[in-house]
Amino acid sequence: MNQPPAADELVFYVNGNKIVEKNADPEVMLLSYLRKKLRLTGTKYGCGGGGCGSCTVMVSTMHPISKKIQHYPVTACLLPICSLNNMAVTTTEGIGNSARLHPVQERIAKAHGSQCGFCTPGMVMSMYALLRNYPEPTTSQIMDALSGNICRCTGYRPILDGCKTFSKGCCLNNEVNEGPQKKKCCLDRRDEENDLPELKLALAGKQRMKVFQGERVTWYSPSTLKELLELRTKYPEAPLVMGNTNIGLQTNLHGVFHPVMISPINVHDLYTVAPDDAGITIGSAVTLAQLKTILSESVHKLPKHKTKTFQALIQQLRTLAGEQIRSMATLGGHIASKLAISDLNPVLAAAGAQLNLISKGSQRRLQLNKSFFDEAVSSGISPNEVLLSVFIPFTEKEEFVSAFRQAQRERNAYAIVNAGMRVRFGEGTDMIQDMDIFYGGIGSTTLSAKNTSQALIGRHWNEEMLQEACRLALEEISITPSAPGGMVEYKRTMTISFFFKFFLQVLQNRNKTVTLSGGATEYLSSIKDFDTEIPKTLQIFQEIDTKQPARDPVGRPIVHLSGIKQATGEAVYVDDMPPVDQELFIAFATSTRAHAKILSIDETEARQVPGVVDIIRAKDVPGKNAVDGQGTLFSEETVECVGQIICAVVADTSDHARRAATKIKIAYEDIEPAIITIEDAIKYKSFYEPFKGIKHGNAEEAFKTADHILEGEVHICGQEQFYMETNSLIVIPKGEENEFDIYVSTQDISTSQFAVAAVLGVPSNRIMSRVKRVGGAFGGKVTKPAIFASAAAVAAQKTKRPIRCVLERGEDMLITAGRHPVSGKYKVGCMNDGKIVAADVSFYTNAGCTIDESFLVLVVALVKMDSAYNFPNLNCRAIACKTNLPSNTAFRGFGFPQTGLVTETIMDAIAIKCRLPSHKVIQ
Fold first, then answer.
1. Domain harbouring 716, CATH code
2. Domain range for residue 876?
3. Sorted alphabetically, which PANTHER family does this protein's record hold (predicted)?
4. pLDDT by residue (tens digit) across 115-124?
5. Disulfide engineering: 663 pairs with which of 129, 197, 605, 869, CB 3.0-4.6 Å?
6. In this predicted model, what pLDDT tens digit does every residue of 633-653 receive, in sequence order?
7. Residues 478 and 590 in one domain
8. Residue 839 contacts by C-beta under 8 Å, 6 or more apart in sequence?
């Protein structure tokens, strides 16, 4: 193979404009390139892992086989720019602006589909990509298209209202006077620009291998299978990158580094779709979205009995990730990753799928079975091999395949447990001839219940077999306490629950009567498909009087001031502000111990990272090294929680700053005890004082008159605010009399102002604090932004340069905590008719390592404890526990959701004890 040039030019298109990047870096994601290089800030950073949809854009390219231009949504945070050669990218800025709105932008805004607006550009682009493929989508298609987008403000109803105006049924509402349906419903494709003739011309030419050399990584993009195999031989440890949905997570979130990457995205041999008499062969580069389409078409064309595996795979594909990830992730990558939470691998393995592997000089077929997933057996894909395609066999008439999946929500969520099961019977009998059972989510990879399957061969498909199968499966599938995701007992239950459903499905599909002890009716409901219903909304409002003057806004559905700008990407959030001259970026080195003494801090390796300007520590703080309510700013002697800031790195780019922060070596000596839970705090009497309490009436005497006295406990976990915009700020030194301008995403600019002034040791009037808009907060940006503003201000004061601070999602969640976990203990006295006569309640909250807003949360909890009910005699106390966790803070509801749950538990306990309906007790 001829050695290609050292580095090639990257050519792609953004919003119709040709981009030629002469120094393409494989480590740069499209999101960063759009925002930092092209200044297209409508595409937002939300999570960095492809899970929230804030960074959704549309990619257009020519399919290597059909030669047709295809449009699909992607998450820009996971897409390396080097994978975009000869592709086109469309962002929300590219489809419209406030002067000339695209219908999607207009209708979402006019349907009141934005509040904070941070997620809105992603919603717009998901819908836009759908309309480019389906100008008149169904409501189900709209819901699928938005399944990969998270909104923390609206509750989705107004977003769907705006998007549903494009569906076929929306024209029924054309008579309304106001709203997004007023003019026309279905998208007029004449408004769309053409499909980039320059792109078609570039793709029509002969392709050659491209090489891109970054600061640390070399990227190879072969154009032929021969080139790919030679690269695989030369670099056997280099990952093959297609959609980057798995490798991107490893690099973005876990710091995994690969010096060489190979992207076979242009190798046509990997896109094969070849049906034959035995099954269908599908290329490893086919995306999951394309796979769903291919299988669906096959199901419609072929006899039903042949496509049972296809139907099971389609069932899993409907809820696997979001539309963006399904449009990026490939079948080959999904299989080769061997992830424990893979939804397709258990089904493919149970169905007897085979992998077609190729290396330089040889080819072989590998069965997808227990040995493939077994880490102790070297029976997988060799380092020098490439997964060429996957063969999925047809099913026989007496063969049945089913897929199962249980997650915390239906869509866009990892499975807690999943499974694929297959059984084949002898013709005309119910005797098992062959069986395979595979589970995911309960080990480090997909697990096979091989012994169980073998033991059942020759058994009849009846209740005795069912009982034996459940017993054998529980014995064979051992779930350790350290299993990914925990929930051991729940997962054990799901393993046999899935087999029970499989048992019933097979009986039903074979048109056999279900005869089980205890009756069949209630069992059959377990295999019913609970399809998500299309949301239906009813809004009741007073029509505007026709005589009401146009200038009178009362009662009119007015779009909020920023709605249009949010939909077009023109609304400016903190990190959307243009770079300030000579600005630097800050990243934090945080504690990895819950309670420890700091023995040493070694900065040597960190200072060797390119671009590092300085490292900020406690000795650099000119004023008070603390933030009120938040504790020490830069810890130097001890740490009291994981995530406590020890020092900060200042560098020329955010990537350099973060990379250097991970190289700071900190030695610890643990301090006992490490108090983590409320129970620990009670044991060690670790509390913040004073305690809070409310008392009225005489509960002690009233208890003596009660017919029943009930006692119990309620434990409520914490919760993340998960505001879409992470903590972001810019600190700019003015160069005169220690004056600083601070642009900060916060709910309380005064707290940040006073904190910065105290840390710098200057009067607060020297600090000008500003906030234009906030991309979600829910209480999480009341006090916490002061920490980051103070640290950045110290860095700005020391370097005399502007400092930009934008936290990564994991970093934000680690440092800031969220809603308080609460343990409620109650004693309640009631009469036989359910009337409460007395109650004694104690609330313990896990405040964390500093007090923050915990006292205020206690007060709200106490004041609202009685909710809408009458407690004539009440003793109630609330105690904030000091623990070695990041300090919890304000959160919408401010303690009332927790205390309300305790109160409702009391009402239910009374209803059960008195054998009364709950509503009677409540009345």
1. 3.30.365.10
2. 678-721+818-922
3. XANTHINE DEHYDROGENASE
4. 999 999 999 9
5. 605
6. 999 999 999 999 999 999 999
7. no
8. 699, 826, 827, 828, 829, 871, 873, 874, 875, 876, 906
